[in-house]
Please model this.
Amino acid sequence: NLDALALKDEIGRAQIEASVATWLSLARKHLDGCLYPQAREALQEVLKLQPGHREATQLAQELDLREREYA
Model:
């Protein structure tokens, strides 16, 4: 049934979006707390779910900068 497949796809997308939001929030908290390895791991999880995610990519660049500054 096409309606059922469409609903399944919509639910799947919603679950991915919720996971992305959770991982991004965790990444920001780790970044703010200077927990850089944990922030990187959270960002990698976002990028696994949505490769090329703009905000995750930007946060990863910020993380790289902070790591260089505080190394």
Summary: The longest helix spans residues 2-32.
